[in-house]
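Limitations

Structures in this collection are predictions, not experimental determinations, and the ligand pose is part of the prediction. Treat each record accordingly. The example that follows, with zinc ion as the small molecule, is included so readers can see exactly what is and is not provided: the inputs are given verbatim, and the output is the predicted complex.
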Amino acid sequence: MKQTPETSGNIATCLNCIDGRIQFPVLNWIKICYGIPFVDMITEPGIVNIFPNDNEHAKSSLFESTLEKVKISLNIHDSDIIFLVGHDDCAGNPESPQVQENQIKKSVRNLKNQIKDINPSCKVIGLWVPLEKDLFYDSSLKERYLEKNLADVDIVKNIKIILEL
Ligand SMILES: [Zn+2]
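Predicted complex:
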């Protein structure tokens, strides 16, 4: 007999960029806004741009590999909420915020469609993380940020939802 999962509501799945500037902020934002203590983090550079259009049959191996990781998080960890994150100044996806916003919307719809057989009620939420890049390349701020965790606070308050399905 399959045991009732005890993890429901405790774990979220997050498809995030590899960018180190947004890891803690995104984790904290999920914890604060959704009361979820643990996050399965799946990272690729510019991850909002790896999802093919719904009408394209050809899927990249990177997309397939990412989708397999999502399925593990949903099936084994019983996650029922997925976040997909884009951000300013992205090395892996150097597009404008406007272009990335459209990529995020497209990818959220695609992902929702891809996981409907596993859990049709699973939420998929696209996030945008604004960054002031000068702030992060100013070395004098390093100590302040490490000690006070201000980077988290500064960025977390500006994270916004692009699309929720
Ligand atoms: Zn990035």
